[in-house]
Structures are given as C-alpha cells and as structure tokens.
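We read letters as residues; the fold follows as tokens. A sample entry reads:
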Amino acid sequence: MVDVERPGAQQWVPGSDEGTAGPAGGHPDVDALRAAAPACRGCELWEPATQVVFSAGNPHGRVVLVGEQPGDVEDTQGIPFVGPAGRLLQKALDEAGLQRQDLYVTNAVKHFRFEQKGKRRIHQTPELAHMVACRPWLQAELEAVDPRVLVLLGATAAKTLLGGQFRVTKERGVLGPRDTTAGRFDVLPTVHPSSILRGPPEQRDEAFAALVADLAVVTEHLARA
C-alpha cells in the first residue's frame, strides 16, 4: 500500500510481560521497532514465513489502521496491504477522503500464517497465542506513533486490542474513546477488506460502500479536531 524505508538496526525486542517497555533512556521509535522485529521468536510463525512484515506509512500519522496479518503477497514483498485486500482498502480510503500522509498501516500479527497445499499457501486465521505473542510489538508501535484515531480492521485486530468478547459486527462504524490493551484511543472498528472479497459477488458493491462509510466517519472526525 505505502512503501517504507528500511532503517538501520537497533536491536530491541519487547518483553513478554511488559510489552511497551523500551531500552534504557526511552521508548523505541517505529524505525527501531521495524529493525528489531526480524529477531522476534515469540511464536512459531517466523519459521515458515518468508519474512516479518512490519508496517508502512507515516510513523507519526494521525490514523493507525490495524489489520489481521500479512497475506501471501505481503509475505513475499515485506510490506503490508499490497495484495488484493490492500488495493481494495486503498480505494476505500481514497473514496472516504483519508489522505495517505495521515496513515500508518500495520497488522496485529506480523508473520503470515498459512497451510501449504501443493504450491499454494492458504491463509489461516491467527490463533490467540499468535495475537498475544505479537501484541507487545503493536503496543509499542501505538505508543511510538501516538495516533489520533485507531481503525481496527476485522476481528483479529479487535480481539488483540479490545479483548475476545468484542464483536465488530455489532459496533462497526462507531467511533469513540475506548480503553485498549495499548492505552486509550479514539477507536473505530470496521470489517477487514478481505471479508468483502470473500463475500458473495452480488453483495460486494454494498459491502464496499459500507466500508467507505465507516472510514468517512474518521475523515469527519479529523476535520473537526
């Protein structure tokens, strides 16, 4: 979706108990986190994946969008939201009036979870253990970026930051202050764009319009801020 520079390394890995605790002298910035992430061995997903897929966009963006995990294309290229779902998301963001310079994009889980079937790699939804293992990275990212609005794309992002009882289908499109595992933010939950692509073709236009309407709530909120 948005290309990013690959900074020099500063090795730092969040602890399993205090996810936002940085090195002595302060908290790491996004560049330091991205450089350190390939060393993470918090769960088993690092081994079959091609690479860690960390984030893209403005590290001081007013809006952070959190997805589920990288897909097959993202795993190959090392950049989030560059596959079919990412292209659909970018179209929705454009139609909603959100500017790229305002956006930081990441995922709740940083490695591609898949099942190998012949030459194909079939997406598998991350388990709770994977969300928990990656949560310190996401917490540290949000502390470093300090966004004005947090957009949660789908159930995995919502469960990671709001707990397993939260249901996106019940509260999508409603923007307001919420306590998350990374602190208090103005949060807007909505669907993941991949759910639109998986849905019935005859319903995709309506589902896409609903996603645009959700994201437009963020645009209006930023205009009032």
In short: Residues 1-26 have pLDDT under 50 and may be disordered.
